[in-house]
Amino acid sequence: MRVHRHIEQAPDVREALAWIYRIATNCCLNEIRARRLRPEPRETLPEPALSAADASFENRFVDQELVRRLIGRAGSKLQGPAWLYHVDGLEQEDVARVLGLSRRTVAARLKAFTANARKFLRRNRQS
User: Fold this and answer.
1) Cα 106 to chain center, whole Å?
2) What angle do CA 122, 124, 127 make, to 5 degrees?
């Protein structure tokens, strides 16, 4: 519906997919933010499974609920790249094109997201 509502602002054919991805990403991020205001009641939250050396950090992203929680905790600059990369499975170059950033900026933001996520997971594991 959002694409249809703003179809007059659509870019040329080459940029259309990135434009649609951006609209979808913004919609998803807005939903994540809205969930903070109306959390769903749960009996238990999934426990993150950490490896001793953190070598399998990427494997933990199989747990989509955990990913959503981690992205929801991230700063606004980190949420878009993290969602597109870890949830949508886009490559860094594609994330950069969708968000209008350099690949280097995307890599730096993904690195910051990963560092923040590791700290959060370690903290929760100890408590």
Assistant:
1) 12
2) 110
State the DSSP code for 39.
P
Give pLDDT, residue 107: 94
Domain that holds residue 19: 2-126
Q: Which residue in the block uniquely carries the two structure tokens 């990963």? A: 114
Q: How far apart are CA 47 and CA 44, in angstroms?
A: 9
* CA separation, residue 100 to residues 6, 81, 92, 95, 97 (Å): 19, 11, 12, 8, 5
Global confidence as pTM? 0.55
How far is CA 105 from each of CA 47, 71, 86, 95, 108, rounded to the nearest angstrom? 31, 17, 16, 10, 5
Number of domains comprising the chain: 1
Band of residue 55 on the pLDDT scale cut at 50, 70, 90: very low
Q: Positive or negative CA dihedral for 49, 25, 105, 98? A: positive
Could you give phi then psi for residue 41, rounded to 5 degrees? -70, 135
Task: Say how many C-beta atoms besides its own lie within 10 A of residue 115's C-beta.
Answer: 10
